Amino acid sequence: MKLHGIERTLLVLEFMFLGAAIASAQIHVGDPIEYRVKITPCDSVEILEPKGVPLRVLPGKRQIAPESGGEIVFHAALFDTGAFDVPALRVVAYGSGQPLDTFLSDERHIQVVSLLDDTAATPRPIKPYVEHPLRFADLWREYAHWVAIALGAAALLFAFIWWRRRTKQGIKEQVLPQLPPAELALRELISLRDKKYPDRGMVKEHYSEFSEIMRRYLEGNYSFPALEMTTHELSLEFKREELPTCWRQELLPILFEADLVKFAKEVPSLSDCAKILDTGFRLVELTRPHEEDATEKQAA
User: Fold this and answer.
1) What is the rounded distance in angstroms from the CA atom of residue 84 to the CA atom of residue 29?
2) Among 18, 164, 193, 298, which is most buried by a count of CB atoms within 10 Å?
3) What pLDDT was estimated at residue 217?
4) Is the dihedral of CA 58, 59, 60, 62 positive or negative?
5) Which residue pairs, CB below 8 angstroms and at least 24 apart, start in 228-233?
């Protein structure tokens, strides 16, 4: 029998001493079950819960109605679903602290169901698919982390390229210092002297590098393309009045001799190789611009 409302949640079972009527019912989990048991007059009672079933005697005030012939009223509940055979409950009556008698209820069969709907037993109809418009917020929520990773990678790549360019510029500036023509010529003559080409039989290389050093100095100091001129063209250039006569008188014979060493396989002596270096040092020191000359040029 299935009860409804208060009647459904409140199952009344009347247990009579040694012979209550047996009934079957369906209740929900936790629904209180009221017990009424007639007992003999006593000072107190103890209700023993049965073992093997999830039945618990509910706490609360227990009513003893002596006028109804010693009837005790209390409640219990089942806390699991399924069909249960509720065994007899033992009600022990005490007097002066000693057990006077024990009362037994009869056994019951109760069906306990869940408070929630059984969706498996009663499936709901499947709703049709509803298309939603594509929104920017949905795309951003889905791909925001990838956008952040891409921006971070681009920033790192830009920083790496900027650092490489700055490093290359710094190295280039260090490799190509801007030296005055005279300072550069003196350093190159010292380097040529340290190579000691004549001592190793490399006279041609000695004269070739000397000629190139002096031509580069003339080009940087007097601003004409001496490196691209032949020796004959240089002899014509040396006739200019603004050029010191030392170039025509001392360097020009060495350049002609260098042509003979390079193209006619003439072999000069070691002392001649040393003399051209001395001549080169002296001509650069003699013709190098001084600070006074630069000041006069700026003033003019």
Assistant:
1) 12
2) 193
3) 94
4) positive
5) 231/255, 231/256, 231/258, 231/259
Distance from C-alpha of 190 to C-alpha of 277, rounded to nearest angstrom: 9
By the 8 A CB rule, do 76 and 24 touch? no
Tell me what pLDDT residue 207 has: 94
Which string of DSSP letters, residue by residue, matches 213-245? HHHHHHHHHH-S-GGGS-HHHHHHHTTSTTS-T
Packing angle between helix 270-287 and helix 252-263, nearest 10 degrees? 140
Report the SS3 class of residue 68.
helix
Residues with pLDDT less than 70, the chain: 1-24, 61-69, 117-123, 171-177, 291-300
| pLDDT tens digit sequence for 211-252 | 999 999 999 999 899 999 999 999 999 988 888 999 999 999
SS3 assignment, position 290: coil
Chain-centroid distance, C-alpha 82: 55
Query: Which helix or strand (DSSP H or E) is residue 83 part of?
Result: strand 82-86
Q: Please tell me whether the overall predicted TM-score, pTM, comes out greater than 0.85 for this model.
A: no
Q: What is the pLDDT of residue 8?
A: 43
Place of tokens 């069909």: 83
CA distance 80 to 111: 10
